[in-house]
């Protein structure tokens, strides 16, 4: 009997059931197929359209030259420098805090009120829209702390934005480290902190790395918050107290002011290619990591 | 040795509170900047005032509230049926090999910066609406006019942007429906489609609703894509072809050159947005828990 059910279900899954499929059924299923295809087409058309129009304008000069006449001519050198600078600053601030939070939440926290508040706060932070982060960064970092429009203000704001992603990714990674590792380390006489630094963290590096890469992706793609906190000046920034323009902000200003079609497409393509790489690397690390944990258990 | 460990634990705890503290700081500063003008102007006056004209000192946020609501509703009308259909497709219909291509593609869709979506909308959708959709509408209504920068353009772009949220969460919800439900329905002679509509979707209700609410939050909070395609006219819209400005768009556009009072008014706009998003997020968590988040 059980076998029959299984066979029936399997046949049904393959659409080879004995039942006649009526027209309504067929139409409904066709609709679902259509929508799915449409979704993929939407994705392909967005990525494809931008790349088709943009890639031909990307060359070495585009990367190495300074933008001229507001971005109408020249390249995006200072913008790349600004983007890298800002991303590094935000990662440098967010990583230690994020990893430490995750360690506390997974290794130390007991389920009390404080921890509940911390979890709720972290979740809430993830749900705040970027323009609110921008407003906050503007009034707090730029004006209240007198950091002005600078890479530091922008970096601090971005750090807050990527913090929830980092915490979550690190927590997930730490949770997959088998309990026996910790027990082994304790048995050898290591303290809790030694165990965490020498055993737990090394076995969860790839998970932390994935979170970090996703954070970089978010930092590079962010526009609204960065515009309000790091400014949009075109010069090459010399220190973290200088304002800077990132790639997304540059793309926005080019597009909204209609300065140059080809530069706009080229900048958008660089952004998309960057995001593709980020996704690819994150997936690669995640896959490797899944394989590793499977090998362990 | 014990002491040293204790210090580390305290340090880690401090780090763990950073996220929560910043939520408090953000709330505090946004309200501190925005509340005075809400009080001075009167909340009702600010929320329902129909003219937003900073140069004349009149701050009525109603046009922007309507703008945000209309663009979001439009995005939900287009995006929700698409998203749920996709989720059903992935969880119930598609063979594994297709799912393997489909899922990373959707993830990628989520990773593309919003300004790129906005640029695509500006380059493709806006002209499309002006040149191809407008003539069709004019056949029915001769007076219709649009520059292409419209609620429709914003809704279409936002619909694509909220798809990943809706598809991912709904798909998980559908996958977690116990197989016995499906078997029972099929054993009673229901077809595949009947099973999906009458058994699986109702059973996955809480997850699907959560996904829609979260998608809504994303649509309301989205800035850069909307700013590039909706035209930014602070005027209560009359049709889907009208230009609108949204709460987010107004803040981003005007912050750069605002006078002090104008800035405060923008913060007040931020307060409205903030409260709205928080309500959405809380209700999403609540539905998840309440409607049986098994």
TrEMBL record, chain A:
Alphabetic keyword roster: Cell membrane, Membrane, Transmembrane, Transmembrane helix, Transport
GO cellular component, one term: plasma membrane
Listed PROSITE patterns: ABC_TM1 (PS50928)
Annotated family: Belongs to the binding-protein-dependent transport system permease family. CysTW subfamily.
Keyword hit for Membrane: yes
Keyword Transmembrane: yes
UniProt subcellular location: Cell membrane
Organism: Marinisporobacter balticus
Domain ABC transmembrane type-1 residue range list: 80-282
UniProt-recorded name of the protein: Phosphate ABC transporter membrane protein 2 (PhoT family)
Membrane topology per record: Multi-pass membrane protein
GO biological process terms on file: phosphate ion transmembrane transport
InterPro entries (alphabetical): MetI-like (IPR000515), MetI-like_sf (IPR035906), Phosphate_PstA (IPR005672), Phosphate_PstC (IPR011864)
Lineage of the organism: Bacteria, Bacillati, Bacillota, Clostridia, Peptostreptococcales
Molecular function terms, GO-annotated: phosphate transmembrane transporter activity
Sequence intervals crossing the membrane: 31-55, 76-105, 125-144, 151-170, 265-286
From TrEMBL, chain B:
Keywords: Cell membrane, Membrane, Phosphate transport, Transmembrane, Transmembrane helix, Transport
Gene Ontology terms describing biological process: phosphate ion transport
Membrane topology per record: Multi-pass membrane protein
Pfam annotation, one family: BPD_transp_1
Major subcellular site: membrane
Record keyword Membrane present: yes
MF term (GO), any: phosphate transmembrane transporter activity
Superkingdom of the organism of origin: Bacteria
Subcellular location as annotated: Cell membrane
GO cellular component terms given for this protein: plasma membrane
Alphabetical list of InterPro entries matching this protein: MetI-like, MetI-like_sf, Phosphate_PstC, Phosphate_Transport_Permease
Transmembrane segments annotated in the record for this chain: 7-31, 61-94, 106-129, 149-169, 265-286
Boundaries of every ABC transmembrane type-1 domain copy: 65-284
UniProt keyword Transmembrane, yes or no: yes
Summary of the function given for this chain in its UniProt record: Part of the binding-protein-dependent transport system for phosphate; probably responsible for the translocation of the substrate across the membrane.
PANTHER family attached to this UniProt entry: PHOSPHATE TRANSPORT SYSTEM PERMEASE PROTEIN PST (PTHR30425), PHOSPHATE TRANSPORT SYSTEM PERMEASE PROTEIN PSTC (PTHR30425:SF1)
Protein name: Phosphate transport system permease protein
Species per Swiss-Prot/TrEMBL record: Marinisporobacter balticus
